[in-house]
Design a protein that fits this description.
Order of helices and strands: HHHHHHHHHHHHHHHHHHHHHHHH
Structural class: mainly alpha
Number of helices: 24
Number of strands: 0
Shape: globular
Strand content: under 5%
Helix content: over 70%
Radius of gyration: 28 Å
Largest sheet: none
Amino acid sequence: MASHSFGLFEVLLTSHTSTISKNSLKSSLLQLECHFTWTLLKQDVDLDELEETIGDQIEFFIKSNITNYNLLSYVCHLKNSNEEALRNLQKAEEEVKKNHPDEIARRSLVIWGNYAWIYYHMERYEEAQTYASKVENSCKKLSSTAQQKIQLPEIYAEQGWALLKFGRKYYQRAKNCFENALKNEPNNPEFNAGYAIAMYRLEDYSYRLCQDLGPSLKPLERAVELNPKDTFIMALLALKLQDLERADEGERYIEEAMQKTPDLPYFLRYAAKFYRRKGELDKALKILKKALAVTPKSTFLHHQLGLCYRAKLFQLKKTTRYPPQEQVEELIRLSLFHFKTVTGQKTKFFTAHTDLANMYAQAKRYEEAEETFQKAFQINILSCVDKQYFYYNYGNFQRFHMKSESEAIKYYIEGLKIEEDSYVRKQCENALKKLLEQRIQEGLGDATDFATLGLVHNLNGETREAIKCYEKAIALCPDNEEYLSALCELRLSISS
């Protein structure tokens, strides 16, 4: 009996020891610089779509693919394919040997960190410990501090590239990473390219008002100067120049890049965007179809095709008094096809969902439009500007398609209540003001309309105009406590 108890105690002791060693392993893994410690959350991306994008980049970009294989291994882990993740890390190691034979340890720190984490998740703790130790020993040799972390510029850059792939929530962090990388190597073409892309994307998604339109211009010019072969960056520079109403300069970059890489899909998609925005829709469509032949599943290309067909539809309606119904229906069909392809593949692509909903409305398929708007709003990574964009578009849908001015007013107000200063918030304000003023001018304005106009003025800090509107609302509805309270507050704010 005694020996049996001793055996049980031994098992418990071993179990306790292994828990301690597992915990100490975990705490040392958390010190590593790799994808597992960079807070890249799977709910923020569509993993299948990201896996395909990385695969395309490995195929079409003629450069070292260490970063791509490393990120691909992390994506495979997130998809519960740890064996596939290990295979990608082996490919990353081969790339290091091929491209950096004299710096194997320095260039393998992120790879080894990823190996350690994947083995940890596979419960292969000894192998996990081996790789954690490799990182620690290499860091000691490379740095004066005895740590598992070392602030190498290429690690900052690798983190930056990974963050860019995980979507707009991560762009500010990506920009900071490239800034840190550039502190040590200000003339590194790759770090400059990453910084320029992060700046461009931050600007592209912010739609800020009252700000300089072109903070990304200088970084883009610098990146092109350091690497004139990078036609992807050249195309972004062209688009930025187009934004700044310097389209002729931009087009020269597009033409030069077209000579250098006429078949690179990552350049072609932005060249097409340039010509679509210029109004040369047939040229844009021709380029997009060429790129689509190379990367047939690209959601970016399908979205751009949808936008081109939509632009052709609006152009037709604008220039022809009675546009041929057949042509209208065909352009709607093509646009719907491409937008549906995108939303089917990329479930978190908010703008594409909104574009699809608006196109259903054009086709008078209102139930499908309503359903798609609701899907768009349920996407879990919407920024404040996205929500404003939703309310503006949904307000327009209610006003022009469902013929409900009261519902339109309700949603424009929701957009305006989100105080993030943006171009689309201004659109909500303008649409709301125009609609209310139109109702008042036509003699249809009631107390609610005056009070709502008062709210709009108040939200914009236009206190005196707001007071006038609330006074008119109270004249029509003298006992309304909400209006009386709002008016009282406004008068107090002036007197104080």
